[in-house]
Amino acid sequence: MAILIKAINSCEPINDMVIEKMAMVYCYEEPGQIESVKEYWSNWLTGENEGDKLTVVAEDIKEQCLAGVVRFWKTPHCGNKWLIEGLEVIKPKRKSGLGKSMVEYGLNFLKSKGVDKISANISSKNVASIKLHESLGFKKISSGAINSYGDFRPYMDEYQLVLASLWDNEVS
User: Fold this and answer.
1) Domains in the chain, number
2) CB half-sphere exposure, 30, CA atoms < 13 A
3) Which of 22, 42, 58, 130 falls between 20 and 30 A from 7, CA-CA?
């Protein structure tokens, strides 16, 4: 599997094709949602959503498509803390380590920029995501969580990672 993981702002210019590819990852199993997801990505990438952002993609070189996307957001609606948002890997590439690799890429990038903590709000039923984040050192810090728009979600739990304690020799 020839996969290239990169920050979206370091690859091609943001255009309709990039937005289409990113939307296709999120709509892989529900293609009827593509137009609303394209609108979301357009707003995300053009700065309509306030706050600092990092978008990491996994590009399948052989298939010439995106196999995964994850967003990191320093949201003003949540005390300006960094959150991992919307980790998604297309079904044929799941359980390959791709999601973990994308999150690690983003964590290393943010650590290199001086970010010291990052949170992830995960549904208490999403066992795969909980295991992935715990394998990276995230610890559960609350039952119920404030989402990225400042709304309380009782079915979400907040997990947090202190970046300074990890990967001291791995940040590039």
Assistant:
1) 1
2) 6
3) 130
Structure confidence by residue, pLDDT tens digits, 77-135 = 888 899 998 899 999 999 999 999 999 999 999 999 999 999 999 999 999 999 999 99
pTM of the model: 0.84
C-alpha span between 119 and 130 (Å, rounded): 12
With respect to residue 170, please indicate whether it lies within any of the assigned structural domains: no
* pLDDT, position 10: 44
* Residue 5 contacts residue 105 (beta carbons within 8 Å): yes
- Which residues have C-beta within 8 Å of that of residue 94, sequence separation ≥ 6? none
Q: Within a 10 A sphere around the Cβ of 91, how many other Cβ atoms?
A: 8
**pLDDT value for 11:** 45
pLDDT value of position 172: 40
102, burial (CB in 10 Å: exposed 0-12, middle 13-18, buried 19+): buried
In a domain, 172, yes or no: no
State the Cα–Cα distance between residues 71 and 86, nearest whole angstrom: 6
